[in-house]
TrEMBL record:
Cross-referenced InterPro entries: Aur-like, Kinase-like_dom_sf, Prot_kinase_dom, Protein_kinase_ATP_BS, Ser/Thr_kinase_AS
GO molecular function, one term: protein serine/threonine kinase activity
Source species: Acanthosepion pharaonis
Cross-link (Glycyl lysine isopeptide (Lys-Gly) (interchain with G-Cter in SUMO2)): K197
Domain annotation Protein kinase: ranges: 72-322
Keyword Kinase: yes
A Pfam match: Pkinase
Superkingdom, natural source: Eukaryota
UniProt cross-references to Gene3D superfamilies, sorted A to Z: Phosphorylase Kinase, domain 1, Transferase(Phosphotransferase) domain 1
This protein's name: Aurora kinase
Keywords: ATP-binding, Kinase, Nucleotide-binding, Serine/threonine-protein kinase, Transferase
CDD domains reported for this sequence: STKc_Aurora
EC number(s) given by UniProt: 2.7.11.1
Length: 342
């Protein structure tokens, strides 16, 4: 029996490696066809750089002291962000598939978000959870910063939501359970995400959820924060009302996310910002008749004006609607070790 399980695990790893390499080859062919020439460098990072970094793209060997772009084969663009692009890449030595996020220093400096990037790197590089996107390492040159990230083959969740318009109970409950488990892990590490939304979530090889963007996250050992941050439709009342906040802001955002999964739009969406603010502070929203009673109950228990009255993440995972509809096992999180205070 044990030998059979070991063989199955080995076959599964080999299958995953094969699939990822096929994906990379297809992506590389597509990128060459699109460019029309191997010498065309448009929308492609520079070919050489020397810089310092931490991490190992393979995730199985000792941390490497220095990374450079020469360590990677670069494939097709995976996405475009405000400060740069994300590319499919393969670490040459290990053949390990990653996503390489390329950020332009000039744009980061103009927006005044260098400290935000440093915090994102510091926090995300310490997190190890199946539903949190791994940050393996980083390096930089004179003009760019490169983040070596876990590759999520099924792409962006918000695009799946756009295609489906809204998710059914089973899919929504499964995603919410995975998100709750990941947030529980983050909170045990004293990390508050503060910007939960579909655009910041990716999907792994088996369709599992991956929290991907920690740009607004904070390591908060002192618990209470005052910064207004995040996305308008997902802001909790305490942020809008300029009150101190803690990890319970993520509980509110989880309720908004659950609503958007089931309805296709956020609950407090309005034509103008001021009206959205007003709806949030009054917790004024309507649940369509097609949303099940169990789902509506969970949403109502998360969207509470008083943060202390919001359902805990453990309560979310034990909620009857989650238990009934979640299609994947919900593991018990072992006690975590807090991140060191920097």
């Amino acid at each position: 029996m044990l030998a059979s399980r070991n063989l199955n695990r080995q076959l599964y790893r080999l299958f995953n490696e094969l699939i990822l390499n096929i994906l990379f080859v297809l992506a590389d062919i597509g990128a060459v066809e699109k460019k029309g020439s191997a010498n065309d460098t448009e929308n492609k990072p520079p070919n050489s750089v020397t810089s310092t970094a931490e991490g190992d793209a393979a995730g199985t060997q000792k941390p490497k002291i220095k990374w450079s772009l020469n360590d990677f084969d670069i494939g097709k663009p995976l996405g475009k962000g405000k400060f740069g692009n994300v590319y499919l890449a393969r670490e040459k030595r290990s053949k390990f598939i990653v996503a390489l996020k390329v950020l332009f220093k000039s744009q980061l400096q103009s927006a005044g978000v260098e400290h935000q990037l440093r915090r994102e790197i510091e926090i995300q590089s310490h997190l190890r959870h199946p539903h949190v996107l791994r940050l393996y390492g980083y390096f930089h040159d004179k003009t760019r910063v490169y983040l070596i990230l876990e590759y999520a083959p099924q792409g962006e969740l918000y695009k799946e939501l756009q295609k489906a318009n809204r998710f059914d109970d089973k899919r929504a409950a499964t995603y919410i359970a995975q998100m709750a488990h990941a947030l529980q892990y983050c909170h045990k590490k004293r990390v508050i995400h503060r910007d939960i939304k579909p655009e910041n979530i990716l999907l792994g090889l088996k369709g599992e959820l991956k929290i991907a963007d920690f740009g607004w996250s904070v390591h908060a050992p002192t618990s209470r924060r005052n910064t207004l941050c995040g996305t308008l439709d997902y802001l909790p009342p305490e942020m809008i009302e300029s009150r101190p906040h803690d990890e319970k802001v993520d509980l509110w955002s989880l309720g908004v996310l659950c609503y958007e999964f089931l309805v296709g739009k956020p609950p407090f969406e309005a034509e103008g910002h001021s009206e959205t603010y007003k709806r949030i502070t009054k917790v004024k929203y309507q649940v369509p008749a097609y949303v099940s009673e169990g789902a509506a109950d969970l949403i109502a228990k998360l969207l509470r004006h008083d943060p202390h009255q919001r359902l805990s993440l453990e309560g979310v995972m034990k909620h009857p609607w989650i238990q009934k509809n979640c299609t994947t096992p919900i593991p018990v999180l072992p006690p975590g070790v807090h991140l060191p205070v920097q």
